Amino acid sequence: MNTMLRKSVLAIAGLTAAGGLAAGPLNHATTDTTTTNTTAAAQATKPDTAKLIPHGVQGAQSHIDLNDEQVDNTKAIIAATKQAGMDERAAVVSIATALQESKLENLGHLGDRNDHDSQGLFQQRPSSGWGTVEQITDPEYSTTAFLKGLKQVDGWQDMPLTKAAQTVQVSAYPFHYAQWEQQAADLVAEHWNS
Fold first, then answer.
1. Helices 68-83 and 139-151 meet at what angle, rounded to 10?
2. Which of 63, 76, 122, 130 has the greatest number of C-beta atoms within 10 Å?
């Protein structure tokens, strides 16, 4: 009896599925195809996560909510990265560095709170040859200067983010860059094609 009952249930399920296939896709084919194509197109335009974070994130990650100025600075870093002919990974390294150095705020001289004469998104110093105050407080210029330094680091593409950033920045806190890798990758994924 169990075998007979099971065969009956399977037969009914088969008829239901066949009926659903005949009626279902005919009524919904356009919507399903469009949704699939739109989703595929959106995914195709986003950078590959494996390319953005090839080594995985190191350590605990930090995150801050960004205001309009910080988003604009993110977009400026991405634009300068593209202009320099560098890829999404370079943008991730740049944005993570700027998140650590300035929280993506284009900082001027902070008086007693300032680290020497450090200014701008990357806290670059005129006295260290990064450029004039006007230059290093220009997001495009300061990003280009950072990327120029990054290009000079042999094998930066294969390094963990914190090592690549530290080699350029020579910070007193070299491991702090790593905490921003996930947010930087998320920002690049969101804004690379915007």
1. 50
2. 122
18 pLDDT above the threshold of 70 = no
- pLDDT value for 107: 84
pTM score: 0.73
What's the distance, CA 193 to chain centroid? Answer: 11
Return the amino acid letter for 192: W
Classify each residue of 85-124 as buried b or exposed e, where b means 16 or more C-beta atoms within 10 Å of its C-beta: ebbbbbbbbbbbbbbbbbbbbbbeeeeeeeeeebbbbbbb
Q: How far is CA 130 from CA 37, 73, 101, 104, 113, in A?
A: 46, 19, 15, 18, 20
Q: Do 77 and 92 contact (CB within 8 A), yes or no?
A: no
pLDDT tens, residue by residue, 34-48: 444 444 444 446 677
In 3D space, the residue among 102, 144, 97, 108 whose CA is nearest the CA of residue 121 turns out to be: 102
Question: Mind listing the pLDDT tens digit for each residue in 97-149?
Answer: 999 999 999 987 655 555 567 889 999 988 889 999 899 999 999 999 999 99
- DSSP letter, residue 47: P
- Output the CA torsion sign for 43, 47, 51, 55: negative
